[in-house]
Amino acid sequence: MKAMLILAIVGFNYFVGIFYGIVNVLYTVLVSIASISVPFHIRKIKYAPLRENASSTVTSPVSVLIPAFNEGEILFRTIQSTLDLNFPDSETIVINDGSTDNTLDLLIDRYNLRKIDLVYRNILKTEPVRGFYYTKDIPNLLVIDKERGGKSDALNCGVNASRSPYICSVDADTIMEPDSLLRLMTAVMESPDPVVACGGVVRVMNGIEIENNRITKIALPRKAIGIFQIVEYLRGFLFGRVGLDTIRGTMILSGAFSMFQKQVIVDVGGFDPNNVCEDMEIVVRIHKQRRLQKKPYSVRFITDPICWTEVPETLRQLARQRRRWHLGLIQTMMKYKTMLFNPRYGRVGVLIMPYYFFAEMLSPLVEVFGYAAMIGAFVGGIISLKFFILFLFVAVFYGIFLSLASIFLEEMTYKRYPAWEHLFTLILFGVLENFGYRQINSFWRFQAFLQYIFGESKWEYHRQEENVVDAA
Amino acid sequence: MQTFILNRIGTILNHTGTAFKQMGTPEKAAIIATIAIVAACLLFLAMAVVRRLYNGHRYRVLDDLRAGQLIAIRNYIKTKHPDMESFRARPGSRKWVALEDTLFSLAEDETNRIIVRQFFEQLGYVEHYLKDLNSRRVITRASAIAKLGRMGNSRTAEALLAMLETSDPEIVAVTVRAIAKTGNASTLIKLMNKIPVLLEKNLIAKKTIDSSLIAASSRITPVLLDFGKTCSNATLIASILSVLSSFPVDRDVYDFAVSHFCHPDAEVRAKAARLVMFCEEKVGILHESALLPLLKDPVWFVRLHALRSLGNRKQEKYIPEIFSLVFDEKWQVRNEAAINLTLLGKEAIDAFLWLLKSDDEYIVASICEEIEKTNFVDVLLGIMTSPQQSDTSQKAKEILTIMVSRGFSSPLGEFAKTLGAGTYPKRQEAS
User: Fold this and answer.
1) pLDDT, tens digit, 9 for 90 and up, residues A289-345
2) Residue A126 — left, alpha, or beta (φ > 0 → left; ψ -120 to 50 → alpha)?
C-alpha cells in the first residue's frame, strides 16, 4: 500500500514536472515571438496613416459603450476621455445599469442632460430601459438608464442603441488615451481581411496623476499590490497576447477596451449575461460562428492603443476579480469544449483552445496540487531536501525570468514608465511576485474551480459590487 | 591579502566543483538551469540600463542637432545661400537622422516643399532610400517606401510602382499611400490600373485605397475624373466617388456623379447620390429627373443617400417625395425621411400631423423620435404657446397631444412641470 502511495506521488511529481516543462516551453516560444513582433509593430507605427485617418471621411464611425453601475464621479473622467478622443466620428453611450446610488443624477447635472424619448429597438433582448438622456450641446453623448441586468446586458443595450458600424466597450473606471481608438481603427482599416474584433493594451491607472480628468504624469501605485499587477499586466499583454496574436490566435480581448463590428455582435446574439467573463466568451463564440460559416475574418490584439484602468487595491477585491476571471475562463472552455482539438475550427480548435485549456485553465490545479505533492513527498522522505530546494529554485527562477522578460520588452519598446526608479521598482517587484504573490494567485484561481463545481457563478462589477457588499 | 583572497576563492571553487561532480543528473540540470536563468535576468537588467543611458545621450544629441539645423536651413531658405553641401552627412549617422526629421517637419509648410525636395535629392536621401527598396527586410523596404512617398520626388515613381508586384500586403498598403502622396498624374493612373488586381488578390483593403487617395489632397481631382470616366471596375468607381466627396467640388465632379446614377452597381449609385449632396451647395443645380428615380431604388442605402441629397435642399416642393419614404421598409430610410421633414420646419407640420395619425406604430415612433432629437419639439412648443394663436398653433398642439398619447412625453412633461401641471403617461418600450 505504502509502495503504491509512493509510486503515485512520484508519478504525480513527474507529471507536474513534465506539465510545467511543456507550459514553460510554450511561454518561452510566446516570449520569443513577442520579442520580435512588438519591435516590428513599433517600427510599423512610424509610417501608419494615423494622421490621415484622424480626419478622413472614410474612417468608420464608432460607438463607445460604457456600462456603469454605482460609479459616481469616477465616470466623468472616463466619459471625458472618450469625448476627447482624436477620432473623426465617435459617439459615447453610457449605460446606467440600474445604479442604486446617485450616478444618474450626477450625470444629468454634470452634462445638463435632458430626458428624451427614443425608439429602443430591442434587437438583443435586455432588461427594460427606463429613459434616455441627451443634450444638444454634446450631441455625441447619450446616457441610457435601464434596470439592472449586469455588464453583458448593459453592453447589449448599448449595441441596440448604437448607430455606428463598430462598437467599443470601455470599463467605467478606464481612461482612454486620445489616439487609442484611432490606432485600433487604423489597424482595422488597413487589414485586407475583415477585422471583426480587436483590442488594445490595458495598463494600470493606480498611482498616475490626473488633472481635470486627464492623465498628466505616469507614476507607480503606492501600494505593492498595484505594482505586482503592473508586472502581471505587462506579462499578460506584452508577451502572452502578442505571441498568440502573431499566430492569429487571439481569444481574449479585455472588456476594459475592445472594439467589435456591431453586426457581428448582433449575428452571434450579443454578450452572454450568463458568463462571468463576457469578453472572452464572445470572442470564442465569434471564432466558432465564423469558422462554421467559413467566412473570412480576423480577431486582432494590437499593442499600441492604450487605455488605463483602475485595479483592485485590496487582497479581498483582487481575490474576487481573479476568481471571476478564472471562472469565466472555465465556463467558456466548458461551453465550447467541442472546439478542443477539432480541426473544423482550424488553428483555433487545434492550437489555441488546447493552449487555453491546458496551459491557462488547468495550470492552477496542477500548480496547487503540485506544490502539495512536492511538500508531501519531501515530508514523507520520498525526495531529498536538496532536490526539493532545487525544484523550488527552478520553478521560482523561471517565473522571475518571464516577469523580467516582460519588463525588458516594455523597456525596449513602449517605455511607459520612464523614470529610473520605475525601472528598478518594476524589476524588484518582478522578482518578488514569484515569492508568494504568484502562488496566492494560483490559489484564487484554484478556488474558481470550486465555485464552478458548486455553482457560485454570478456576474459581478468587481469594485462597485464590493462596495455594495461592504455597505450592506 | 590579495593572495589570501585568491586562495579562498580557489578553495571555494574546488569544493563547489567537487560537490557538483558528486551530484546526480537531475540536480546538475536544475543547477545549470538556475544559473542560466539568473544570468539571463542579469543580462536583461544590464541591457536595460545601458540602453537607457545610450538613448538618453542619443536623444539629447539629436535634439541639439535638430535645433541647430532648423535655424541653419531657415537661414539657407531666406538667404538662398548656395552651400547646401555643408548639410551633407553620412547615411545613418545622427546628423543624417536629425536633418531628415528637420526637413520633414519643414515640409509640413506647403511653401517649403520644393526646397525641401531639393535638399532630399541633393543630399543623397532619395538615392539612399531607393537602394533600401531592394532590402530583404520588409520593415526596411516599407520604411523606405513611406519616406520616399513623403519626399514627393517624381523620380521615385517608377521604383515605387514596381513595389506593387510583391505579395506582401504590408508593402502594398505603404506603396499605395506613398504613390498617392507624390500626386504625380501618370503614376497615379498606373496605380489606379493596378488596384483591381490588388483587390482581387486581397492584398489591400478598400479603406486603405480611399484614405490614401484622400490624403493626396484635391490636386488629384482631375486625375481621378479622367480615370473614372474610362474605368469599368465598379469597386474603383465607388472609391473614386467616395474620395471626391472629401474634396472641394465643381461642375465636372457633379457631372461625373450624375453620370453614375444609372450604374448597375448599387454601391456606385449610392456613392454618386452622396457626392451630389456635396455638390448641391457649390454647383446650385439639381438633376431632379435623375435623382428622383433613385428614391425608388431597390437597394435601401441608395434610397438613403438619394434622400439625403434631396433633403439637403430643404425645399418645400420635395415634401411629397420625402413623405413617401417615411413608409419605407428600412428604419434607416424612415428615420432619414423624418429628419428631413423636421428640417423643413413649419412647412412640414401638415405632413407630420397626417403621419402621426397613421396606424403604423413604427412610423409614428420614428417621427416622434426625430421631432424630439432634432429639437423640433421646441419649435412646436413655441408655436403652441405663441400669443398669436393661429391654425398652425392648433396643429402644433395636436401633434404634441398625439406624441404624449404615444408615450413621447418627456419634453412636454418638462414643459408642463415649468407650468406646474401634472405628469404625463410613459411610453411602452418598442420591441
Assistant:
1) 999 999 899 999 999 999 999 999 999 999 999 999 999 999 999 999 999 999 999
2) beta
Q: What is the CATH number of the domain that holds A278?
A: 3.90.550.10
CB-based contacts of A469, cutoff 8 Å, min separation 6: none
DSSP A338-383: GGTT-GGGHHIIIIIHHIIIIIIISHHHHHHHHHHHHHHHHHTTSS
Please give the DSSP secondary-structure letter assigned to residue A195.
E
Q: What is the DSSP letter of A169?
A: E
Cβ–Cβ under 8 Å, residues A41 and A304: yes
- Of A57, A192, A431, nearest to B203 by CB-CB distance is A192
Which three cell numbers, joined as nine digits, stand for A174? 478606464
A176 - beta bridge partners? A307
Among all residues of chain B, which has the CA nearest to that of A53? B211
Asked whether residue B214 carries a pLDDT value surpassing 50, the answer given is yes
Measured distance between the N- and C-terminal CA atoms of chain B, rounded to whole angstroms: 91
pLDDT digits (tens, 9 = 90+) for A139-162: 899 999 999 999 999 999 999 999
Interface contact B151, partner A, CB < 8 A: no
Q: Which of B44, B408, B411 sits opposite A408 (nearest CB)?
A: B44
**pLDDT average, residue stretch B67-79:** 85
3-state secondary structure of A413: coil
> In terms of Cα–Cα distance, which of B71, B69, B75 is closest to B88?
B69
Strands A214-217 and A209-211: antiparallel
Task: Name the residue ranges covered by the structural domains of chain B.
Answer: 314-431
Provide the ipTM.
0.79
Q: What is the domain count for chain A?
A: 1
Q: Which of A387, A393, A470, A466 is nearest to A435 (CA)?
A: A393
Q: Is B215 on the interface with A (CB under 8 A)?
A: yes
Q: Domain containing A141: what range?
A: 1-472
Cell of B372: 424630439
Q: What angle do CA A337, A290, B206 make, to 5 degrees?
A: 150
CB A230 within 8 A of CB A313: no
Residues of chain B found within 8 Å of residue A391, distances taken between Cβ atoms: 30
Distance CA A279, CA B417 (A): 43
Distance (Å, rounded) from C-alpha A449 to C-alpha B391?
Answer: 72
Question: Do B37 and A400 form a contact (C-beta atoms < 8 A)?
Answer: yes
The CA distances from residue A32 to A238, A301, A464, in Å, are: 11, 17, 39
Rounded to the nearest integer, the mean pLDDT of chain A is: 88
Q: Is the pLDDT of residue B21 over 80?
A: no
- From the number of C-beta atoms within 10 Å of its C-beta (0-12, 13-18, 19+), residue B383 rates as buried
For residue A306, the cross-strand partners are A201
Instruction: For residue A33, give the C-alpha cell.
Output: 515571438
What type of residue sits at position B320? P
